[in-house]
């Protein structure tokens, strides 16, 4: 950490603030003493210039398009690792040895079943309820089943809850899908890997054996890796804030799911595919590019732009490669949606508006095409994002709990309402 400092003078009041440096990336100005010394708050709606915590988990360089998990580049993890290995890395900070990986896989695999009573929660929903609504309800309800792992001050209970979340999210997500399409729930099988187990729970039917396609399960596993964690994004910040009050981990993850649902965040993959379907053909792309630029039109190119990446989202490049692999394996390489997506990307990347505003495709731009090709309806896309991001939320939640500086998050405001005034009886209004 450097010993630089920053001085802020407001009127005759001065605050001398320390500047802290991390391993890599921007320094931070510790403004903890600002209000006490100057009587002023900082103001940063959307937190565009605000660091909320110290973290060792994920580093993003938006200008260079770099994403590291515990120092390892996402490209190498997606190429060489599997999702449970990345889960271990995010949770424990190091890549597992062969023995550690075997033990971790065994522990996760043997937590994949949910309490049989869970299935009754689903019957309370309409069949056409959005699966994300079902996920919010069912994941939050997990707190009702696991009283033996909600003491957040006990590291062992925190790790048990963490493993339970990682293990059970695919089962709950698959149950949400099966309920949505009116098919019977499929139990997990312990002899399948994480992604294969999930695909089987989604697509197997009692009438015939489900044969796992290794190309598709590898693609599913890689999609999980790409969505695993992403620094202090909106849903992760939601989980941290919920956790700062001491709420149990299942309730915190349910809060993260609710935030991820928004189309500006994890809901963008569903919105991006709906947008590509609405555009429908290459000929209509200029019409939508014009709409995206029109200040009076709320339309945005879904799957484009990012708060941090002002270069190509490194996950989008890997996602695009996975899309081609899946479509080729399924014989859909001439999918019209892919043709529209690639032409839209080509045009947008050469258009002055998008270049000036540094709007590049993000992870959500290609993921929808791949998930549709794998057989998922668009309403399940954000559920899959939530499934994969659970490990990131849980790792960040654990880090927050273990942070000696952590205290309940409680931002202040700039009040622009009415000054003090007296009550007026209704007869005089
Ligand atoms: C995710 O934070 C994370 O890490 C998130 C995520 C993760 O892994 O957790 O990466 C996952 O959420 C990816 C983002 C998915 N969202 C979308 O694809 C929705 C479309 N994109 C936008 O709504 C937008 O780009 C955001 C929300 C992603 C970022 O918004 P910002 O940083 O607040 O930027 P902004 O809205 O202020 O836009 C800056 C300018 C604006 O123009 P001006 O007002 O400056 O003239 O760029 C324009 C915007 O109008 N703009 C777009 C645009 N995105 C921004 N114009 C057209 N199409 C777009 N997609």
Question: What is this entry, summarized?
Answer:
With 429 residues, the protein is mainly α. Helices cover 50% and strands 6% of the residues.
Distinctive features:
citrate synthase activity; 3-stranded antiparallel sheet; 429 residues; Citrate_synthase_bac-typ; 18 helices; Citrate Synthase, domain 1; mainly alpha; globular; 6 strands; transferase; binds s-citryldethia Coenzyme A; single chain; Rubrerythrin, domain 2
Task: Kindly state the percentage of residues in helix.
Answer: 40-55%
Q: Compute the number of helices.
A: 18
Bound molecules: s-citryldethia Coenzyme A
- Shape, please? globular
CATH architecture of the largest domain: Orthogonal Bundle
Strand order, largest beta sheet: 1-2-3
Largest sheet data:
3 strands, antiparallel
Low confidence ranges: none
Catalytic activity: oxaloacetate + acetyl-CoA + H2O = citrate + CoA + H(+)
Family: Belongs to the citrate synthase family.
Pfam families: Citrate_synt (PF00285)
Pathway: Carbohydrate metabolism; tricarboxylic acid cycle; isocitrate from oxaloacetate: step 1/2
């Amino acid at each position: 950490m450097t010993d630089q400092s920053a001085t802020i003078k407001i009127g005759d009041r001065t605050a001398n603030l320390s500047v802290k440096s991390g391993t890599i990336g921007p320094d931070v100005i510790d403004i903890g003493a600002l209000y006490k010394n100057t009587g002023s708050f900082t103001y940063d709606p959307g937190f565009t210039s605000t660091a909320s915590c110290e973290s060792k988990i994920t580093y993003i360089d938006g200008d260079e398009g770099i994403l590291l998990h515990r120092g390892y580049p996402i490209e190498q993890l997606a190429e060489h690792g599997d999702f449970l290995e990345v889960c271990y890395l995010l949770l424990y900070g190091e890549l597992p040895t062969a023995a550690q990986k075997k033990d971790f896989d065994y522990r996760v695999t043997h937590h994949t079943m949910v309490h049989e009573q869970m299935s009754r929660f689903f019957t309370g929903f309409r069949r056409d309820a959005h699966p994300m609504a079902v996920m919010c309800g069912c994941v939050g309800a997990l707190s009702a089943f696991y009283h033996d792992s909600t003491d957040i001050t006990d590291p062992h209970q925190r790790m048990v809850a963490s493993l339970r979340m990682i293990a059970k999210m695919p089962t709950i997500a698959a149950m949400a899908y099966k309920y949505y399409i009116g098919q019977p729930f499929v139990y997990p099988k312990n002899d399948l890997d994480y992604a294969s187990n999930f695909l089987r729970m989604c697509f197997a039917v009692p009438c015939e054996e489900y044969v796992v396609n290794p190309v598709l399960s590898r693609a599913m596993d890689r999609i999980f890796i790409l969505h695993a964690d992403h620094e202090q994004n909106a849903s992760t910040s939601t989980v941290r804030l919920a956790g700062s009050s001491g709420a149990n981990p299942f309730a915190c993850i349910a809060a993260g799911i609710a935030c991820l649902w928004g189309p500006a965040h994890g809901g963008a993959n569903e919105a991006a595919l709906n947008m590509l379907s609405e555009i429908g053909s290459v000929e209509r792309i200029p019409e939508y590019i014009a709409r995206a630029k029109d200040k009076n039109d709320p339309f945005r190119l879904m799957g484009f732009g990012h708060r941090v990446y002002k270069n190509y989202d490194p996950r989008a490049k890997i996602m695009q490669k996975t899309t081609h692999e899946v479509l080729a394996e399924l014989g859909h390489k001439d999918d019209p949606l892919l043709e529209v997506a690639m032409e839209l990307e080509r045009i947008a990347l050469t258009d002055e508006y998008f270049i000036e505003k540094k709007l590049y495709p993000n992870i959500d731009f290609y993921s929808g095409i791949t998930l549709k090709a794998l057989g998922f309806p668009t309403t399940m896309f954000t559920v899959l994002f939530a499934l994969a991001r659970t490990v990131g939320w849980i790792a960040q939640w654990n880090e927050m709990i273990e942070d000696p500086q952590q205290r309940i998050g409680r931002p202040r405001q700039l009040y622009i309402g009415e000054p003090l005034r007296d009550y007026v009886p209704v007869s005089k209004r």
